[in-house]
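seq:
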Amino acid sequence: MIKLAIVDDDALIRESLSILIDGKQGIKVCALGENGEDALRLCKFCDVMLLDLRMPVKSGLDVLEEVSKHTKVLVLTTFDEQSEILQSLKYGAHGYLLKSATPESIINAIVEIHKGKNVYDTVVMELVRRNMPENRQKLAELSDREDEIVSLIADGYSNKQIAKELFLSEGTVKNHVTSILQKTGLEHRTQIAIYRLRGEL
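struct:
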């Protein structure tokens, strides 16, 4: 069973999503919230969270970095603005879909994210590609350990999962990821994953 929390300030969207998703492909909607404070409260009790970005009290972006430490986050929003997409990826979102996505796409994304994969709308992926630096000369300077970590990032592993897989502390993994970003000139782990999947890292 996949325990899902839905956090959106629009009551109609919350309830509609809950009805459409609950019981599908082993998903159980266990909680509903309407702002960032609710997200912070609920993140420790769910496996995946559907999170809107623009909400009162505290927005999804305000709390995303903290929430993503405790659960996998699928951002579901109306907006495809570049700054919000890039911030969401930087703060640890495991997926980013627009609300124009079909219910089936949302359900499949929840399942895939629960498995450890990353799921992004095609608009988001194109934006990430456009924001990749062209100068890739430094990408060959990775150590063997950093290369291992890049592969696991491409497989959708979180820092916590990488630490467990490689018998390292989470802090050590975080330091390696920071080093990888500095060496490659990339901005966030999603770009790392895309480069590896394209065979360019």
